[in-house]
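Problem 12. The chain below contains 227 residues. Write out its predicted structure in token notation.
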Amino acid sequence: MKVKLLKKNRETKDVFSFIFAPDKPVEWKAGQFIFYKIPDENEDERGITRHFTISSAPFEDNIMLTSKFDFEKGSSFKKALFNLNVGNTIEAYSIKGKFIISDYGKKYVFIAGGIGITPYRSILLDLEHKNKKLDIVLLYGNKDNEIVFRNELEQIKKNNELLKIQYVIAPKIIDRYVIESFVPDIENRLYYISGPFGMMKNIKNILLEMKVKTDNIKTDYFPGYDI
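Solution.
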């Protein structure tokens, strides 16, 4: 399908959101991702196609892509994306992903590293829209106090007394001590981890050492990012 850029929002100094209108109705589940293709005469070895989590919730209709940008070392795809003008049209296709909530009766821990917060925006807004107040602890690790979607997250928290949010700012990291400090009944929760590969792998290993079952851990890997 074709998607037209409606708006570009600056979330922090190096994170931007791009809101696209699809040329036909499209359905997705909160937490899934979609592929984009942007033709570029100066494409690098990574090519003209990428997948990104849909950071908007399904009820918002438009597709939002939120990404971090390195303006010196960024890929040709990222440069082409950033240089899109409102009204420009690109191709988007193949919605996939299992980083979704399928059981409203469970308790959850959402762990995010940097731009890994994007699926949680979609999921939390979707739950709020459906009036599903789940017991969720969100641990959000970031390199500084520029928290992506902070205002929205705080508003969602106001509407759900069961949602707890803890920001972990560098040099602090999300480690065993943080998890034990902020997560009650550790063994009775499902764990979602979203962020850079190194962070995701480290936290998964910590959870396994804490006797969390592998089946209770779900991951969403963001390639090419540091927190």
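Discussion. The chain has five helices and eleven strands. Students who got a different answer should revisit the alignment rule from Section 12.3.
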